[in-house]
Amino acid sequence: MDPSSLSPQLQAHHGSHFYKKVNQLRETLREKLSEVYGLEKYDVFMVQSVSVGLAILSHLLHKQQISLSLARHQHYLPIDQLFAHSVSPGMENSGVHIVTHVNPYTGEVNPLNQRQNRVVVDASHSFATNRHNDLIEHGSLFLAPLHKHASVAVGLTLIAVRPEHYSMLLRSELRLFEGSTMSPTPLEMALTTLEDPLWRPFNVASINPIDIGLPDGDRLRSVNAPGLPFCCLRVPTFSAQQQQTVKALNGSYFEHSDTLRLSRWSRGYKGDSVDCTASVFEDISKLWNIR
């Protein structure tokens, strides 16, 4: 965009090279993220959120007569409401599915190495965790917010695309769409984080399987895959008092799946792992008054 895109008043405030500055920030961030997270084999784009990114991808694929639909497992509820669970009839080249790599409600890991290349992966709970290598090795096109396990900045989500799996047209149009992320604030925040010598790029917390007896004689068992930075426990009954307590513990109770999620955060580098199982037992003790 040329300088006349800004009104004289805004030019006085931001300068006449606002768009050039933002583009430079984005290019610098793109390069640093690719280096830190091993994305050299991907083309990387940035948008505001996972939902926005999926909506853009749905539009671009639809232009190529490809229907984007949900794979047959649970997704984040906002995404679940945006997309159909089956391919629209009459789409000649249909069949691209949205796959949630790590289910946010149960901790189930959906394997990527058993799928065809043409899937779109929601990597919200695997990017920058102990599942990162699996994602990078077997992913074809994935989205990951930078405010979760990466802990880089709020208001940025990356879209990573393997060039050999998707057309130049789709990638060129993604480059145009990412220009809508015009605020320099999240880009500057992200670069400041990456340049902080105390920052660590990965959430390396890991939780082992949980199996503990409760005072009423029942047993509490985790249902998630091991090694994740959170555990999910099936709890058919969960009192109002427990729901208040779990909020104070930064946990989440999902009524629709009858699961309790207890998350852990420990910063480190790829390959590190910090066992946080003991602290999860402490939270369980508080929730069920186990002494």
Name of the level-1 CATH class of the largest domain: Alpha Beta
Structural class, please? alpha/beta
Spatial strand arrangement across the major sheet: 1-6-5-4-3-2
Largest sheet: 6 strands, mixed
Looking at CATH, the homologous superfamily of the largest domain is Type I PLP-dependent aspartate aminotransferase-like (Major domain)
Please state the second-level CATH architecture of the largest domain: 3-Layer(aba) Sandwich
What order do the SSEs take from the amino end to the carboxyl end, as H and E?
Answer: HHEHEHEEHEEHHEEEEEHEEEEH
State the shape. globular
Instruction: Find the count of extended strands (DSSP E, 2+ residues).
Output: 15
**Uncertain residue segments:** none
List keywords for this structure.
single chain; 291 residues; 2 domains; six-stranded mixed sheet; three-stranded antiparallel sheet; 15 strands
Structural account:
This protein folds into two domains: 3-195, Aspartate Aminotransferase, domain 2 (3-Layer(aba) Sandwich), CATH 3.40.640.10; 204-288, no CATH class. The chain contains nine helices and 15 strands. The mean pLDDT is 88. It is globular and about 70 Å long. It is 34% helix and 19% strand. Strand 4 (119-122), helix 5 (132-138) and strand 5 (141-145) form a beta-alpha-beta unit. A six-stranded mixed beta sheet has the order 1-6-5-4-3-2, sandwiched between helices. By secondary structure, it is an alpha/beta fold.
